[in-house]
């Protein structure tokens, strides 16, 4: 671990927090502008969803590679470079001449975002000891939760103010500010880092994750032939089999298998994926149930506020509660999320929608950043980028899988059953945490 002055450590954390604020807006903003962009830019309308899919797929694919690269280079320089990539592609996206160019820029932005996320984790874990990581990830959780809650509103405001180009320019400007925050900080390069690297394993892992995330994302849309996601899933299966073969033979595997052997690391990775699945499914299902019950605009806004606003208010309280009761807090929140989802199987009246949204919102707010801090305290300081990257990859994969499963069930049986899928995932995650995480006094 690097020993820095208190002022420099705070600057490292501030840089990470500023960069983390970009991610929710980069995703929710791009999703919001897809219809407007496809109307204004020339090109096949089928490219519209790829504005989001290309970014998400490359981001998920590049996380592990970026995390390992961050641990082997000057961490602050790597982090700054990733933010500059995001800034440059954000500005260039505003001047994209057609849809194909915009999708290409979003692809590059996804890799830059992976560099930002991996570099931020690598920096933070390199300068903060395990006993401080719970508090640090409380701050990170507050920023991420606030971004997720306010992202759609900010995106709509930016579109009203300056049209769709502003939705790409503003996150780019924030990323540039994060890069400037690192000026004057030491590089944080680990001395005598291993020169050998399992590049084949990292690439195969990235292709597998990218193919799965993209296939599930395509499955959520309409008008996509069934064979396209099917082909991607076949590619994912093929590369996964090759990955197993490569990792068995590698002297130093790209996937940090030693971390996967830590029960708490695995359990909290599943838990955080379940929480994010509850959020994205709730955002999709609750408005549909409200429309079916003919809920007015004011009540609909209240439902979404109850689901999202607690994530801006409660994470710092959660970090204090996690000091003694992390296991109980996470398992209790997962069980409460499952109960809120089950409630909607029996009634979808306005009162039930409000209760379910309030419980789910409190669950998300009181656990934002808690599983991260509990899992990443087991990661060595010189491998923070790879450890955090694998953790976040598990989160993204389970979140996407939950939403895909819920969407399929909703198409067959209705919105309430879709929410039940998220509840089953939460219930399963609670059982895993209880089984794998030991009790502590």
What would you note in describing this structure?
The chain folds into two domains: 6-184, MFS general substrate transporter like domains (Growth Hormone, Chain: A), CATH 1.20.1250; 259-436, Up-down Bundle (Growth Hormone, Chain: A), CATH 1.20.1250. The protein is 82% helix and 0% strand. The chain has 18 helices and no strands. The protein is globular and about 65 Å long.
**CATH classification class of the largest domain:** Mainly Alpha
Distance between the termini: 27 Å
- Major β-sheet annotation: none
Q: Estimate the strand proportion.
A: under 5%
Number of strands: 0
Helical amount: over 70%
Assign the CATH topology of the largest domain.
Growth Hormone, Chain: A
> Which value, in Å, is the CA radius of gyration?
21 Å
Instruction: Give me the CATH architecture of the largest domain, please.
Output: Up-down Bundle
How many separate structural domains?
2
Specify the number of helices: 18
CATH superfamily annotation of the largest domain = MFS general substrate transporter like domains
Outline the low-pLDDT stretches. Answer: none
Furnish the topology, listing elements before pairings:
Elements: H1 6-20, H2 22-40, H3 50-72, H4 75-94, H5 99-127, H6 130-162, H7 164-181, H8 199-220, H9 227-249, H10 257-260, H11 263-292, H12 297-308, H13 310-313, H14 315-346, H15 350-367, H16 370-376, H17 384-413, H18 415-436
